[in-house]
Write a structure and sequence with these properties.
Blueprint (H helix, E strand, L loop, with lengths): L6 H6 L1 H6 L2 E5 L4 H12 L3 E6 L7 H10 L4 E4 L5 H11 L3 E4 L6 H6 L1 H21 L4 E7 L23 H19 L4 E7 L1 E3 L18 H10 L5 E4 L11 E2 L1 E3 H17 L4 E6 L5 E2 H12 L5 E4 L14 H7 L7 H19 L1
Parallel strand pairs: 1-2, 1-4, 2-3, 4-5, 5-6, 6-11, 7-10, 8-13
Antiparallel strand pairs: 9-12
Helix pairs in contact: 3-4, 3-10, 5-7, 7-8, 9-13, 11-13
The structure holds uridine-5'-diphosphate-4-deoxy-4-fluoro-alpha-D-galactose.
The site of uridine-5'-diphosphate-4-deoxy-4-fluoro-alpha-D-galactose has 20 residues, from helix 9 and strand 8.
Length: about 350
Amino acid sequence: MDRVCTFGRFLSRASTQIMSKKVIVTGGAGFIGAHTVVELGAEGYVPVIVDNFSNTEEGVIDGLEKIMGSRPIVYKHDCADEQAMTKVFENEKPFAVIHFAAYKAVGESVQQPLKYYENNLCSLINMLKLMVRYDVHHLVFSSSATVYSQPERLPVDENSPLLEATSPYGYTKQVCERIVRDTLRANAQMGAALLRYFNPIGAHESAHIGELPYGVPNNLVPFITQTAIGLREQLTIFGNDYNTPDGTCIRDYIHVTDLAKAHVKALNWLDNNPSRCEAFNLGQGVGNSVLEVVKTFEHVTGQKLNYVIGNRREGDVEQVWADATKANQVLGWKTELSLEKALEDAWRWEQRLASSRS
Ligand code: UFG
């Protein structure tokens, strides 16, 4: 078995684990997954990470150990592997599943749609099959604001129609939400929270975990921090001729720690409200333009950023930000960390990465 955790640690904590609720976290070594593992541990849940490490590094587990004070349980498996996952369900007897594992690069999904359809759909289907088989009733699913495309009204709430997806990645999120809803309709004891993330940024305050983009980052904030540290020559702002106050696109940026905490709130809500299925927007409820993010980064870090204005990026929506009232009211969750704090933390993480790699 590909179990990475140390047996000694497992034994020494065995009694606590019997008392505690285990949560399988697929993609738990990824950016949002790892931050969620920290928050689960802090709330007394026992996270069980399942990750194939195809888009992250095993060093993340060392970072988690430093933050959490003990090494989390880790299985190096592909969660679409039914045989391997069967053993995980049998060994761990989870109370819930948080399913992050998925490919997430919008542009790559246009180039390689089948890779996205196969991975993102099959892994979810496998997890649902096992949840049904082992009577695991609570699912938190990692969805995305991309399900809305360019909404007609802003801020966008959960009742807004899901417009035609602009990428295969976006379509996988729409289809996965549907797969969850259909599965729950046929399995009355199951419940799910479909969490629609806006733009997660930042890093853990300790700088022990953060974003680890492979190659050239697609997303704005890692591109900014890599430019500031000298890994990239300059940032290109994709278009300044949009119908927005400064002409650049507007997004709702949310600190990854705030986002992670919402997963714990969602689990608590599912535990108290069995058999429910609801979608929740997770954002600050505030839109910031690309230029505002760049200027804020410069202001809070004192770094001058080398940037140019380039062409629009294909597939970008002009502006989107969340109405997160439902998550505030139903889950009792609200964001606590500012854009400034997220950019400071992202910068501290980038600096730590640079020093650990030099
Ligand atoms: N941007 C730049 N230059 C860059 C990178 C990004 O100007 O080098 C701009 C983009 O054009 C966009 C904004 O910064 O206006 C944010 O872009 P990101 O790539 O960081 O994020 P997106 O809003 O495109 O996408 C993110 C996630 C998706 C998710 C989507 C939901 O990456 O997974 O939010 O809205 F689906």
